[in-house]
Amino acid sequence: MKKAVILGLLLGWLSWTGCWAEEAPAPAASNGAKNVIWIIGDGMGPGAMGMFMQGVRLTDLPQYPDKQSTLEKFVNASVTGMYFNNTYDTIVTDSACSATQMATGELSCPEYVGMNYEKKAVANLLEKAIQEGKAVGVVTDSYVADATPASFLAHTDSRRQKYEIARQLVDSGAQLILGGGQKYFTQKENKKLLKTARKKGWTVVENAQELANVKKGRVLGLFAEEAMPFYGDMAQYPQTPTLKEMTQKAVELLSQNENGFVLIVEAGKIDWALHDSEAGPSMWEMINLDETLAYAWNFARASADTLVYLNADHETGVPVFHYRHLDEARIKHKSARGEMLYDGDTDYVNYPYYQKVFNHKHLLYYVYPEFKKLPKEEQTAEKLQQMADEAFGGHIDLELNGQVPDYAGLIAKTNEALGLAWATGNHSSGMLLGVAYGPGAEDFAGVYHNTDLKAKFEKALAW
Ligand SMILES: [Zn+2]
């Protein structure tokens, strides 16, 4: 016992004095992270993250035989911080301003792209990375001229100037831009933009095969007219690369650069599904993000000099299950289906509801217009229930009682049937979570503001 204590003290002294160099853990690389993979879940607030992680735990999903999402494992292995995203003069932000503030470190205003609140173009993290000799890329499953990707590469005072943004993307110093949005490169004043892009050294690709064939150089991938398909619908688009596939290719190409790379990856349609108050499709977008995160995190674990940061630009929708007291008609309706209620009238929402949410892959946003295209006499409540059930991947009793609701009513009926409440159909001011893994991760702990991010990355990269 005594010998062990003395040995322990000796070992402690040796390592403290630096005499134990051979056995001491390797010091953190003094020159910082070489690569950054920054994954932004657009609209992904703690509500959506929590619903996804808990849903994976409580549901039998073939993707998750151990009932644990990569997100949960990643959070457990990483450093988590919380941050605000208020703008120069507003509490709530949009995607353009948020991405601008994250990229430039300066306060901006809603709808500005790469400009501060004084409408001055500000150099951002990616432009600095290019100066430092790093390869730079942006990947999104939205369209590349959309607010988030644009704010990392372009500078305008309105996110609506999508054709101008497309021209700036072509002129940017990025090596790789992948996503949807062909129309902004081929229509109106940009009819010749792809020709210009090729002259500037861009290889332009339009499908998964063409992307796979690119082995080096600059690549502009435009895989859809506008946004790329929702993840739950991807089976219908075998020629379209997934977010994970685009990210994989981006890392393969950018990591050829000796000085490393900075890659921004946006999972853009979490936000879109949350705006529509459709929990199931938003959870499928979370699966999309989770698979992309798994790839990025594996790369970081294998390379040891890559910082992976996962965060959101803002929160959208704020979905939660909530308990409610049911009226007599609904108590009868529920208990007739064998659903457990507490205290006679309280529905605390039982576990199988998560399975119903995850079974719902396809958006009612697309189903409802199809229903309205049917001949008038076929537009019955029964038919709507049947079409909705196809999107739900099973039966969810909407209790239509022979009435055909409008689209908003259909969404409300669906959420009522699932025990879900939403704070808003828009963005919230809610605090966000940022999760960092790799060299420099410790600086992403604590409470901060999204304008602090640029400096944190610069420190992690030892600039
Ligand atoms: Zn957004």
Describe the structure.
The protein has helices spanning about 1-15, 45-60, 70-75, 95-105, 125-130, 145-155, 160-170, 185, 195-200, 210-215, 245-255, 270-275, 280-305, 330-335, 350-360, 365-370, 380-390, 405-420, 455-460; strands spanning about 35-40, 80-85, 135-145, 175-180, 200-205, 220, 260-265, 305-310, 315, 320, 325, 345, 420, 425-430, 430-435, 445-450. With about 475 residues, it is α/β, with parallel strands linked by helices. The strands form four sheets. The protein has a ten-stranded mixed β-sheet, with helices on both faces. It has two domains: about 35-320 and about 425-460, Alkaline Phosphatase, subunit A (3-Layer(aba) Sandwich), CATH 3.40.720.10; about 320-420, no CATH class. It is globular. It is built from 19 helices and 16 strands. Helix 4 (about 95-105) runs parallel beside helix 6 (about 145-155) and helix 16 packs antiparallel against helix 17 (about 380-390). Bound molecules: zinc ion (ZN).
